[in-house]
Amino acid sequence: MTTFKAMVVEKTDSGTRAALADFDEANLMDGDVTVRVEYSCVNYKDGLALTGKAPVVRRFPMIAGIDVAGTVESSSHAAWKAGDKVILNGWGLGESHLGAYAEKARVKGDWLVRLPSSMSAREAMAIGTAGYTAMLSVIALERHGLTPASGPIAVTGAAGGVGSVAIALLSKLGFTVNAVTGRAAEADYLKSLGASEIVERAALTGPVKMLAKERWAGGIDAVGSTTLANLLSMTRYGGAVAACGLAGGMDLPTSVAPFILRGVCLYGIDSVMCPLPRRQEAWKRLETDLDRPKLAAMTREIGLNDLPDVAAAIVAGQVRGRVVVKIG
For residue 165, which of 322, 7, 277 has the smallest C-alpha distance? Predict the structure, then answer.
């Protein structure tokens, strides 16, 4: 019998409980590739899964963790062989399929992306789903036609994982970035990533006007709810907003006015089931368009034992930037 350490979420009478446990390899789910996991990371969704604050986990017991970077141990998939360095983001990992917070993962080869040659497994997980989602959001704004000449871009939830990477990406690409945050103490951190202006979160949390004064050419929103509604109402004519998060809620108290009177577009960004070609494009762009020193500066490392505390902190909005999890 082969066992390994894993952070396992169990169903209890009062909800769920996450704890480090010995997991039997024989109980891994079906898949044609077995990966020796080297690093993972902590995203907002991971925090929800580990704390039980939202019904992210759909089967029990569940190994949590939605991101993997590691080395193929064995494979019956034509595209992968032992020794290949791979990344996996989403596809139900940590939700319906046993996830990343373990020394081994058995997954479908069709879910995997090759680790960029200039990138370490740790760097890939410093990016993780948060950074990969930020890249998908930037690509959506570019495809809309936005350029640095279009005007400033607002990034909400700016001190979080998605926001931090989005600021770094946009600033390197030449955009003027306005960082929207409720954490005034993070102003210097956000400016170090490339933000030119810090906007108080309160500016986007008040009552929503159908149309407010035009302020931004576009935005990347990881918050949702009233924040997204206000951002849409403040977006300039012909602008666009990429929506990729729900930290503030799943509702959207807006009207059709921004869309039919200003021609604003709202792009939905899904990272979980995103088709493979778009994933590969995003990771190729991340390899070249993300400033590695800035990535290192926004990242800290923990072990599996630290996950419950960090999960509670990220759900409470107390985590800045990115957290990588060293495994194995």
Answer: 322
CATH at 15? 3.90.180.10
DSSP 134: H
Question: How far apart are the C-alpha atoms of 243 and 220, rounded to whole Å?
Answer: 6
Structure tokens at 51: 């704390």
pLDDT of 1 over the 60 cut: no
Residue 85 lies in a domain: yes
Evaluate whether 252 touches 229 at the Cβ level (below 8 Å).
Answer: yes
Instruction: For residue 289, tell me if it sits in a domain.
Output: no
In the predicted structure, residue 328 carries a pLDDT above the cut 90: no
pTM of the model: 0.96
| DSSP class per residue in 20-79 | EEEEEGGGSPP-SEEEEEEEEE--HHHHHHHHTSS----SSSEE--SEEEEEEEEE-STT
What pLDDT, in 10s, does the model give residues 74-97?
999 999 999 999 999 999 999 999
